[in-house]
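Please check this today:
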Amino acid sequence: MTTPRRTTPREWMNRLEATLEAFDETGGHRVLSQVFDELGVEDALSHVVLPYLHEVGERWSTGSIGVAQEHVASNVLRSRLSVLMGAGERPEGPLAVLACMPGEHHEFGLMATSIVLSRLGWRTCYLGANTPTAELAMTCRTLRPAAVVVAAHRATAFAANAPALRRVAKSTTVHLAAPGATADVAELCHASRLDGDPVRGARTLHEDLGVPRSLIDESTAV
């Protein structure tokens, strides 16, 4: 008996394109359910969802799709990822605060980081897109998190807010994420970089902070 061929990430992305960009929200949700079931959350995020979102942005920027199509695709995926955020967190887990820098509206990668951290047993406080640094600092003073993750696609967004990030770094570890997180700007902000895709970045943060192995095993068990 032959083993059924697995659907490739490219094929999953094509199915999302065929549904969401044709305004078929129900079909898009059905495809997402299938891809998460077959690949698991982390692989679905790394190999299908985030690459598809990148392609949506590229198609929109070149005029291949319209604003309405981009909005439908983004809104469906945002709603789906929102459901996954916090799903696996544990009351005794360490706390992470996650925010996009001022002016930064690309939040899907940060949402993926939040999802993976929660699946690893973390508690998360997700502040989202375009977060003023004063609000980030106030949240950190109030919650005293074990880690802060801030994201920006441009290094200048980090550099412009380096003094505020250095103040936050005095009381907790600060981690820069997304394409703007260069080595130079991380040093300027007294922060570390989360290299690679958001899923790998979340796992690196988890391991670097020395979360007990038992919490990893229990939180990732099926």
Remarks:
- Residues 213-222 have pLDDT under 50 and may be disordered.
- The chain has two domains: 9-84, 95-220.
- Residues 9-84 form a domain with the Methyltransferase, Methionine Synthase (B12-binding Domains); Chain A, domain 1 fold (CATH 1.10.1240.10).
- Residues 41-61 form the longest helix (21 residues).
